Each structure stands twice: as structure tokens, then as C-alpha cells.
Predict the structure.
Amino acid sequence: MAREHESDRDKPLYMISVAADLTGMHPQTLRVYEQKGLVTPGRSRGNTRLYSQADIERLNLINKLTDEGINLAGVVRILDMRERQLEKDEKIDELTRRVRELEDEVHEFKMQQRIVALARYDADNPQETLRALLESKNE
């Protein structure tokens, strides 16, 4: 679901005039920012610039930073650090999800071990004993 939301944010929608209105910037400023690599709008088949919602948000952040007196070189560094932080946050979220999955697996394994330890060994191996216990529980 988050990926769908993210792809919606990245969908090129707004022509340069609309993007300029949404950000309060002059279209020429948007062109300069593109030349400097601060924003990379999509292109239509006719080569018209199309800005996404993510581009608009990025431009608003650039506008805020420059209004605070930060020059474009500083803005580039801030945006780069922000992107790296977002990537790290995504990686942390991914690793956290994986740790939770592994914790669940370990918990399940420990429970199986406890059940097997408590059960009498009527079968040839612990898995068969566990299966028999589970089947008798369902009956």
C-alpha cells in the first residue's frame, strides 16, 4: 500500500505553468533548478515537462530553504543528506520487519520444542509426535 501511495506521488501530472503556480516560483526558476539537478520532472511524448506531487513537495522544500538564506549548493547538500536518510529509514523499517518475522519464527520453534519435550515419544521422531498432538487437539 505504501508503494502504491509512493507511485501516486511520483506520477508526472503538472505542466510547468501549474507547477510554478503551486510552488509560487517562476517557470524559469523551475528550469534552472532542473538544469542544476535539484528536480527532475518527467516528460510527455511531446517533451513537455511534467511535475509530480513529489516534485512539487521537493520544490516547496527548496523554496523554504532558499528563503531561509541557504544557497543552492547548500540546498543540494541538504537534499542529498535527506535522500540518504530516507533510504536508511526505509532500510531500518525493512530490517525491523524482518526481525519481527524471525522473532515469530523463533517463538514458534520454541513452542514446538516445548510441546515435543512434554510429549511422550510414541512416534519415531518429534515432528510426528507434534503432528499427532495437534491432530488430537483438533478432534
Observations:
- The two ends are 40 Å apart (CA to CA).
- Residues 1-70 form a domain with the Multidrug-efflux Transporter Regulator; Chain: A; Domain 2 fold (CATH 1.10.1660.10).
